[in-house]
Predict the structure.
Amino acid sequence: MDQVTIGLIQTHHDVDGGEPVEIHKKAAIDKHLALVREAKRRGAQIVSLQEIFYGPYFCAEQTPKWYDAAEEIPNGPTTKLFREAAKELGIVIVLPIYEREGIATYYNTAAVIDADGTYLGKYRKHHIPHVQAGGGGCGFWEKYYFKPGNLGYPVFDTAFAKVGVYICYDRHFPEGARLLGLNGAEIVFNPSATVSGTSEYLWKLEQPAHAVANGYYVGAINRVGFESPWNMGEFYGQSYLADPRGSIVAVGSRDQDEVVIGEMNKKLIREVRESWQFYRDRRPETYLELSKL
């Protein structure tokens, strides 16, 4: 199958941050299930949701309340629910959720579910930011909530394509993007929660560059709107699919809930790789210092 239809789901989170965790999760899950079904109706075969899709971007504050949002993977209720949806609809789902391992170890994770409902595995975000953003003490305070990922850069052989995942802040680091290509990825999804400012320029620059440098498609997903009570900045949407030439195949709006649909052509991946031969011409023996510095 050379042509694969990709669905990227971007949404605004509608519940105020002061509400209990359970209310956040139910509202977001109901909303996303409806959008997943819309993606299927529009022909999507692989669908990715946004970073920590079932709630607000709670890392704007440092509050223990949000630990209660975490679930085990794959045995938590949200993974089980979306496994059932994937099987019913015959689609692959990239499902970014807040993971708890054991009693109280937490990761920013994406589960990958095949079109028959099989849980294929998970990717844990490696690069964890902890920086100020906006006023009122808001920030990307992720080290309060997440340990760095420890599962490497896996690629999942799904029914429709070989899928890799890189989560939000990861996109600023080219090393993992290259490893996903070396591990065989045909498409890499980057579920994100990023607000306007300096990152908006990089949003349109870095990931098409990853697609070109590594000869694969990139599906970049960002949430939309403002989230109260923090209002740390505007989540500016503009989710997009970039091809291995760096061209934008499909792009979403800045401020609307939306299923962005784009076509992936696996023949183009081979064509670009044979043309540029970056994998042939790389010199790994000269890069050894990278792991020492």
Summary: The chain has a mean pLDDT of 96. The CA atoms of residues 59 and 141 lie 5 Å apart. Helices lie at 21-41, 77-89, 174-182, 198-203, 206-214, 266-276, 278-281. Residues 3-279 form a domain with the Nitrilase/N-carbamoyl-D-aminoacid amidohydrolase fold (CATH 3.60.110.10).
